[in-house]
Amino acid sequence: MSRPAQGAAPVVKVIATNRKASHEFHIHERLEAGLVLVGSEVKSLRDGKAVIADGWAAIEKGEGWLYGVQINEYPWANRWNHDVKRKRKLLLSRTELGKLGTRTRERGFTLIPLSLYWKGPHVKVELGLCTHKKLHDKREAKRAADDQREIDRAIKRGR
Q1: Residue 153 falls within a domain, yes or no?
Q2: Alpha-carbon span 105 to 52, nearest angstrom
């Protein structure tokens, strides 16, 4: 197995993405956090068995927790398997925890997992500090995407 050269950026391999997050939420800020996992969860993630679409994060008593993320059982772990939807501890610095704690206590802000990925030998989660979109915002975003698609088609035909 080859390793990246000294000083080179670690290899990033995406495990799961939350594709509906950008449709449902305004993403104001993005940040990266580590996860505390058990052995069978790591093995299952190596197989790419994770669903983060229903997940969210919270700051409780000065610690970050990830809820609702489903990491399927590893079939060969037998009785040492993990609970599929257990809460998982986030590895964040004290300053990040303090900042996110105050922001999530504000009205309307939520922490949503945007993607789950390997960064070198470690599992990382990309969190987004988000607010919910209203129905008219979703319609406006869809209309803008449709308009941009039409413009791209017209430019392509014009060539």
Answers
A1: no
A2: 23
User: Is residue 158 a part of any domain in this protein?
Assistant: no
**Number of independent structural domains in the chain:** 1
The predicted pLDDT at position 22 comes to 82
Q: Is residue 17 part of a domain?
A: yes
**pLDDT for residue 30:** 92
Taking only the tens place, the pLDDT of each residue in 63-77 is: 999 999 988 888 787
Q: Bigger pLDDT: 10 or 103?
A: 103
Residue 84 sits in a domain whose CATH number is: 2.40.280.10
3-state DSSP of the chain = CCCCCCCCCCCEEEEEECCCHHHHEEEEEEEEEEECCCHHHHHHHHCCCEECCCCEEEEECCEEEEECCEECCCHHHHHHCCCCCCCEEEECCHHHHHHHHHHHHCCCCEEEEEEEEEECCEEEEEEEEEEECCHHHHHHHHHHHHHHHHHHHHHHHHC
Domain range enclosing 125: 12-134
pLDDT in tens, 90-102: 999 999 998 888 8
